[in-house]
User: What shape does this take?
Amino acid sequence: QVQLVESGGGLVQPGGSLRLSCAASGRTITIYSMSWYRQAPGKQRELVALITPGGSTNYADSVKGRFTISRDNAKNTVYLQMNSLKPEDTAVYLCNLGGIRLGYWGQGTQVTVSL
Assistant: This one.
């Protein structure tokens, strides 16, 4: 059974940084693309960042230059380094394994950017 557990969320002031982690179990992440999505209240879930098995990355325009996705296959973990956070980054951040079609999601971690 695949399990994804996110951690690292919290309350941070604008301009601050957070590092999210997504630890996978039940399946090795090595052969899968891994993604971070976010969902704010009243808004659709949106793709934030993706990393392929080969390490290529893709980002939403709204986070380019501020967020960095990385993976440690030995630890079966994916990370999202978030810098220069803005209030509009406030959302629940969810980890995804293998794309939407496979349907493997974590429960999410709340990120709140506020004074």
Q: What stands out?
A: The mean pLDDT is 97. The chain has no helices and eleven strands.
